[in-house]
Inverse folding.
């Protein structure tokens, strides 16, 4: 059996890096954190990080890539990779990288993403291409993983026309605004065992949309408060069990469609379907994230669901490391790297 000893698991110091490296350590890997200088003291307080590479800014990442390659580093991408390094730099990386990079094209481009989810028969909010047909509330969303930054809500056509003038991003979509419960399902699909698991579920806390209810409507009248959707934290929740199998089937269909549409390997590893559930208990998928999402940080010790699959604490970070370990031992590492 091949040994994991010659590999190091590394990631960027932000987003879900603590969970990823704790999981890697628990699985027996050496760990390395690439971190901005001003954060290093904080990260050094954790015992499971073996090594640090300090950088001044995320933009300096390509400068250290050669070192990572020489040292057999396997890089685990998370939300900060696309947000700060950008889509092109992610694709151009030569270092061992967990996940299928072809998926990035479909994730980044909102219309391609929609085509993929349609192919998977996933219910989504209506998309508007002609502003004259906007006859109920909409949300206008820029491209790229930005954690809700720069989005705006418009209650009708006139409201839209006023607000669009301020939109900075040139690329955006206009989506029906679904009033319901936002719920994020965290999946893990193994392309070694071909098994899909629901690892955990979260809901986000977004400012200021989630705090508007703290001020009575009568006190809001006359103030120009616009809802914003910038995520600041996450909280846990479990789904009605009767709806759980629907959530599972959506995940399965997403994987199957990815194999047809993207490339033979399709999507594997951690991913998240971001949903809003209507009063009719219907899931509307607003977006897919094709990597570990920060909501999984709630579950460093496992979740109500992961505990049902594993008789040991299993975070998504640890599940990734376990997959890499199995792949190395079975000599299948290539099949899980992008
Ligand atoms: P960060 O490294 O924390 O600045 O995050 C990188 C990207 O992930 C940004 O686009 C964030 O908006 C997004 N993100 C960070 N934390 C969370 C969270 N707790 N829930 C959802 N998205 C997040
Ligand atoms: P996203 O970047 O797609 O994850 O969206 C960020 C946040 O915007 C979500 O967590 C929701 O609060 C809100 N949001 C996005 N799309 C919709 C929608 N179609 N209807 C209602 N709220 C939405």
């Amino acid at each position: 059996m091949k040994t994991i000893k010659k590999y190091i698991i590394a990631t960027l110091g932000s987003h879900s890096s603590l969970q990823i490296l704790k999981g890697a350590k628990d699985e027996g890997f050496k760990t390395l954190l690439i971190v901005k200088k001003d954060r290093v003291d904080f990260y050094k307080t954790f015992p499971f990080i073996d090594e640090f590479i300090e950088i001044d800014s995320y933009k300096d990442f390509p400068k250290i890539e050669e070192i990572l390659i020489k040292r057999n580093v396997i890089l685990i991408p998370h939300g900060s990779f696309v947000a700060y390094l950008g889509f092109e730099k992610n694709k151009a990386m030569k270092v061992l990288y967990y996940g299928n990079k072809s998926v990035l094209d479909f994730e980044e481009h909102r219309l391609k993403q929609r085509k993929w989810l349609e192919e998977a028969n996933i219910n989504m909010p209506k998309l508007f291409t002609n502003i004259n047909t906007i006859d109920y509330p909409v949300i206008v969303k820029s491209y790229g993983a930005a954690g809700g930054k720069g989005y705006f809500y418009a209650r009708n056509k006139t409201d839209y026309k006023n607000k669009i003038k301020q939109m900075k991003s040139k690329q955006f979509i206009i989506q029906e605004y679904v009033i319901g419960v936002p719920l994020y399902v965290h999946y893990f699909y193994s392309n070694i065992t071909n098994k899909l698991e629901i690892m955990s579920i979260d809901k986000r806390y977004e400012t200021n949309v989630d705090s508007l209810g703290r001020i009575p409507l009568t006190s809001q009248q006359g103030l120009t408060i616009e809802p914003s959707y910038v995520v600041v934290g996450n909280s846990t929740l479990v789904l009605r069990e009767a709806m759980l199998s629907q959530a599972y089937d959506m995940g399965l269909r997403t994987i199957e469609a990815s194999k047809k549409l993207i490339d033979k390997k399709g999507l594997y590893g951690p991913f998240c379907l971001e949903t809003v559930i209507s009063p009719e208990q219907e899931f509307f998928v607003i977006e897919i994230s094709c990597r570990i999402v920060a909501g999984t940080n709630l579950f460093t010790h496992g979740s109500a669901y992961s505990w049902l699959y594993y008789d040991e604490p299993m975070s998504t970070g640890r599940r990734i490391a376990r997959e890499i370990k199995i792949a190395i031992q079975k000599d299948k590492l290539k099949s899980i790297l992008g």
The longest helix spans residues 241-261.
